[in-house]
Amino acid sequence: MWISQQGKGAQGQGRTIQMGVVTAQGERTGVYAEGCQRLLPVAAPGGYRWKPKNGQQVLVMKSGVDGEAACIVAQRESADNDLNPGELELFADGCSIRLSGDGQVRLKGEVLVNGVSLEAVIEAAVLQALAGQEGT
Fold it and tell me: 42: which DSSP letter?
């Protein structure tokens, strides 16, 4: 990532922005980037939650006088990115929501509405509509 190549510490004391690989996932996230760092917090935009998984390449930013406070702020873009300019995709293993440049919203994976499959919700709505027509 371009930003990871730009960060330099105060008076050249080392990089304040660097790429690393997740070595421990979950609440006690660890990253190997110029040495192993454990218990790193993960930052994300408001309203968004994310937990990096083992082996994922992430961007680590350091703050503090000596760069002692580190935080995971992003993941490296995968090589198989097939997005077109202006598109957005929210994804996890096996599912995604893509906002396409042509105005389409594309869902991949099982869609649940309040814990009920979308198919069951549609079926119930159709049955209710048909039952309402019988009474007319």
Answer: B
